[in-house]
Structure formats: C-alpha cells, structure tokens
Amino acid sequence: MSQNKLNPIVHAFNQLFIQHIHYNDADSRMVQKHVDTFIHELHTLSYTKENLPWLHRERHLVTSSFGRGTHINPLKHVQLLICLNGDDSRIKTTGTSDSYIIRINDGAGRFGDMINAKRELNSSAIAHNFAHELQNFPEAKNVSISSEGGATYRRQGCLWVFNVIPSFFIKHPKTGTTFYLVPDQHGHWRPIYPHTETATLQAINQQHNGLLYDLIYIMKYWNREHDIPTIPSSLLEAIVVNYCEAKSVKLKNLLIWIFLVSYVPHEKRLSSR
Question: For 89-108, how does the pLDDT look when each residue is reduced to its tens digit (9 = 90+)?
C-alpha cells in the first residue's frame, strides 16, 4: 500500500483519537482539581471528627485508569486510595501473603468501634464509616459501598464517580518493597502494588515505541462502541498489556489499524449472537 493511500487512514485515526478517545488536558486538570478539593475537604473533616483516623497526606494516590493515564473519553470513574495513619500499628499476615490483619495499638483511639476485642481493624467497618461521612459532604450524592471495599459517590456537576478506598501504605522492612493494603470484603486487608503496575506499564510502552497506550485506548473505544459483549475496562487493559509483554516483536505504527480491521467481521459478530 503506497504512502499516499496510507495518509488518509493515518489522518482519520488521528482525528478519531482527538475527537472521541483522548481526554483533553483541560478536562484532566478539572478532574485533578476535584481530587485535590476532595482531599482538602476530607483532611478538614478529619481534624474535627474524632471517629475518623488521621490521614497520611503524602501517600494518597489516584489509581485506576485515570491514575495510570489509560482512560478514554468519557471518564467513568476515578479511584482514590486514601492513606490512613495507623500510628505504628502492627501488620500481621494471615494464611498467605494475600491476606493481612491490621492490629491497632492502644494509643490509636480514633479507630473507635472499628476494631474488635483483639484490636484488629475491620476493613468493612472502615468502608461504612467513610460512606457515612461522605453523605455529609455538600456536593456528594448517591453515596454507597463499592465492590472494591471503599465508598463511591458522584460529585455534583461531575459525570464520573469517585471511588474512595481506605488504605495503608506499607514498606517491607527487609526488602524495601512498597505496597498498599486495601479492604478485601471479608473484614481483612489485601495488598495491591499500583506503583509497580504503573512502572511495568510504562516500561512495556517504551519497549513498543510508545504504542502500548494507543493500543489500550483504541481497544477500549472499540469495546465500548461496537456491537459485541463488553469486557470490563481493567480486564481489557490487562489483556492488552499481557499481549504486548509477551510479544518479542515491537508494535508497528499501523498494527493497531490492522488489528482492528481484522478483529471480528461485523457479520460474524451478528451471527454469533
């Protein structure tokens, strides 16, 4: 195919990204402003509410696709890890490294009835406490408990949903590995590694000439717009990342286009329903 014939295709895809896929800088700044405002409001509330734990401002972290820069327009939700200050609480592993118990020291009175007789912090109680307090925010509506173990709400004037997850930042004393503990829906805590995941994503993207992100964007758009059963955004992103990580040959400029037009013929999609 000649370069002259390719130019209209490249131009069309560029316009598709600009008009329908990319989240522009102005909208991203607006979302970040809402995040900053929420964190400020939450810290202000924590100073006046004795039943809210102290917060670790330097360790709050925006995760999900918005935090990784893999979101597309329109933005659906923003996940925010709110880091709690455990006052040097003791962390104990139960069973496997995938399940943790957090035992609060005697001096950490702000956790109140969220701990049991053994002073073990109940992650479900923390989530319900967050949801209760969010209902008092002047611009919050539709507050509920999220499936990820936090609390969700829609801020007035925003089309996307805030998913606020209580967490603890952990640095392993021997290995130096860092991670967060978040609710596991069973009252305990599970580890997640958002910094490692983002670093891995960036490294794979660099290996493939900066095209991994574009492939994620176009696949999310394709998944959303076409007449096929949709895949959850996080799962689709993981599939694309795993594909690129295992691929020894670097992505080419037009691989995305070739992948799309050969993905599944429209007639096949309809006949399989």
Answer: 777 767 677 888 888 876 56
